[in-house]
Amino acid sequence: MMMPQQAALRALRSGGRGPNGERTKVQRGTLKRAMGLARPYRWMLAGFLALVLGGALAGAAIPFIFRAVIDRGIGPRPPYTAHPGLILALAGLLAGLAVVTAALSLWQRYLSARVGEGLIYELRTRLFTHAQTMPLAFFTQSQTGALVSRIESDVLGAQQAFTTVLSNVVGSGLTVLITLGAMMALSWQITLLCLAVLPVLAVLARLVGRSLQRITRESYNLNAGMSTMVTERFNASGAMLVKLFGSPAAEEGTFADKAGRVRDIGVKSALVTQGFLASLTLVASLATALVYGMGGRMAAAGVLSVGTIVALSSYLNRLFAPLTLLSSAPVTVMNALVSFERIFEVLDLPGQPDGDIAGDDLPEALLGGAPLTVEMRDVGFRYPSPRESSLASLAPNAPLGAESAEPVLRGVSFKVEPGQMAALVGPSGAGKTTICSLIPRLYDVTEGVVMVGGCDVTRLPLSVLRGSIGMVTQDPHLYHDTVRANLLYGRPEAAEEELWAVLEAAQLADVVGALPERLDTVVGDRGYRLSGGEKQRLAIARVLLKEPAVILLDEATSHLDSESELAVQRALETMLSGRTSLVIAHRLSTVLEADVILVVEHGRIVERGRHDELVSAGGLYAELYRTQFQRQDAALGAD
């Protein structure tokens, strides 16, 4: 009896609200769409419902056997005329029904798990796959934790529609109907008297439900605050910040305060919960007293048998738990639908459109790995607003009503011929990284067109386009995995000798060779076990292993010391030979090797040419050279 009551308590706690306690309204059509997900499991669900019905009927037969044991096997009145054979037969029947009920219960659980876990798998894979199609702006505007909760918490909530709802609501409904039918057949008078206490049960569930909803909302917030603090302090960067700037005593005090509030709300929740369960037990006990009180008088008057009273009492014990669940059925169904709606709103977000050119229509240069032309024609770009790229529930602190920012790029046009290296220079925030981001379609242009291999990038399949491009960002990301796994992400089929070759080219072979497990050494969260230069060289090696036709380097040598930079520069010169490359650089060593220098200012290309030409022109580049590159030039001359 306790387990169904606890399930009802969970429904009362949520009260038709989201995981953060917000009130939600389910849109029309959500139920129909959710039921569509059950279509592949329709035969399992039909079998599940048949088993539920069979279990309810088998359970309902047990009190009748109790009655037969007392009234026929033992005898209704003294002197008892017992029938040992009948008693043994009925006892065997009880044992058989117990075995059947247990088998049906196990089979129900199997089908329920198959449907529920299958639904979890389906929804999680759909969400993960769809998220991969979303543009980068979706991830920059959305809260990571809010997005992850859709794959974790909301998927589990949706699963309840096919497991908890079916087993508790449908199963409880069948149990109540069959039990009430049996009780009415035994004594309609006592059955109606017992039903008179149902309003007390409904009022109790409503009052306690409101209290539990308030407590649960507060508990969600307190636990979220504690979890956020733990997450921020336990990652590598947060732990370092605490050690450098934080006071351990203050941190302990802050956490103790948060944990104490979680403890206090847990105690309050436990008291209310136990009070509710105790009240249910009290109501059930009062109803049982009515059965024995009124039934005893009727038995004494010869209207009812003793076995009938025992059977009615047994049915009554079977009645209150499913009635409690049914009282919270609307809330249970609403919670499941809210979870479905939160999943569907992510699945309904439009992904980044893929290209429409495929197969034989693809340019041969893209398929053969030959150097490619990179061109921009009158490109304008502004970063999309939260309204355009995310959801209010995924970006709770973002002003979704605000318009997008001013354009970042205006009228950008240039062409880099196959095999050339173009250097992008300019002040911080001029738009250099944005230009590089538009080439592999991390973002799509607002105006104009980006061409790779003579073809509009929006028409190329994303897999083909990005397979032809390799990019090393200023802060490259490494997975919490081995050196080998991080390298193979660039080309999974690469042989081990190829891994060592690119490590050698990136001047990292000696470093990896000295690691405890060499290629199988775990690099830590975001590569934190490596130095900044080592992490960047590993990212360079990953791109070199990919062997793309176009290479984009966003200040890829910014974290290297002078010696390492010169070594990597020599490796890059070899690897970039025969490939088109765009390099964002703040160091003269990179700029001097460029076939063309594009000077970017305020989102426009204001100058272009080679180093000597631009210095002689006396424009922005000459100013950057004097303030930024001249000291490097002097150092190179001294060498």
Your description of this structure?
The chain is α/β, with parallel strands linked by helices and 639 residues long. The chain folds into 3 domains: 2-347, Up-down Bundle (ABC transporter transmembrane region fold); 374-468 and 549-639, Rossmann fold (3-Layer(aba) Sandwich), CATH 3.40.50; 474-547, P-loop containing nucleotide triphosphate hydrolases (Rossmann fold, 3-Layer(aba) Sandwich), CATH 3.40.50.300. Helix content is 63%, strand content 9%. It is built from 25 helices and 10 strands. The longest helix is centred in the middle third of the chain and has 53 residues, at 248-300. The chain is elongated. It starts with a helix and ends with a helix.
- The percentage helix is 55-70%
Number of domains: 3
Shape: elongated
Instruction: Please compute the radius of gyration using only Cα atoms.
Output: 35 Å
Oligomeric assembly: single chain
Strand content: 5-15%
The main sheet orders its strands as: 6-7-8-3-9-10
Number of helix segments?
25
Query: Care to count the β-strands?
Result: 10
CATH homologous superfamily classification of the largest domain? ABC transporter type 1, transmembrane domain
CATH architecture group name of the largest domain: Up-down Bundle
Unreliable residue runs: 1-9, 11-24
CATH topology of the largest domain: ABC transporter transmembrane region fold
- Overall CATH class of the largest domain: Mainly Alpha
| Terminal-residue CA separation | 85 Å
Largest sheet: 6 strands, mixed
Task: Please state the structural category.
Answer: alpha/beta
What integer is the average pLDDT?
A: 76
